[in-house]
Known about the structure:
In chain A, 8% of the residues lie in helices and 37% in strands. Chain A is mostly beta strands. Chains A and B meet through strand 6 of A and strand 3 of B.
Amino acid sequence: MIQPQTLLNVADNSGARELMCIRIIGAGNRRYAHIGDVIVAVIKEAVPNMPLERSEIIRAVIVRTCKELKRDNGMIIRYDDNAAVVIDQGGNPKGTRVFGAIARELRQLNFTKIVSLAPEVL
Amino acid sequence: MTPRVPSAIAFRGLASLEVFNRRKSKKMVLKTELCRFSGAKIYPGKGIRFVRSDSQVFLFANSKCKRYFHNRLKPAKLTWTAMYRKQHKKDIHAEAVKKRRRATKKPYSRSIVGATLEVIQKKRTEKPEVRDAAREAALREIKERIKKTKDEKKAKKAEVVAKTQKTQTKGGAPKAAKGPKLGGGGKR
């Protein structure tokens, strides 16, 4: 349940550390974003000497949420933090590595590159 | 996409088509998992899965277990959890009884010094009557031997006594006097 002003961890090595959600991409006045949704975010904290800098506006896809993800087979998964992966306009990740567990839903939403880089897909 | 109906069913009609479809439907896989907190079985569609930031997965049977976990309660201290029961050794007698069944030791066939394999096997297969008869024969032999030695000893003693009597006829009176006195003492 990510909404504007939500701070998210960054789960890749693109250079950003922390993002703040600004807007949810998709249908009109959407209230909340879940795993697999693309958001517009501003970089609040960045690693020095990297291509991405603080207060840059970028797009990211949410990969982990504290709010439970409900699957069709009745499985409920809850992560420990809110995290996103920085992507470009085409949906390809800007970083080369991904950290932490990734939800399987991303594969169906055509984020296959992120899923393939993930150390663990749950 | 309709499945191809075999001709046999097509002949019989619609009712058997239902049976055919039902048999073709997939059976759900029923694999229960164990709750990390209480040790209870979690059936598919139930329970909550929690992925910690270090990517360790915890399965909880219900929100009670989940709540206790997040409140940092220890399952080993709660009486109803499997961990507590294991720690306090509840229900362990049933398991121990099951495990006691061990294979009986079989007699090992190998020749040793003093008896070759054939001799051992022959002795093993001897019938009890034969063994008893053999034992009796042995005992009888021993008894006869003992008897023989006893007889010999008696004969020797008799000889010695006869000899001494001949030489000690003078000293026979004190012996005789002692005799009845002893007997009298014993009688009282």
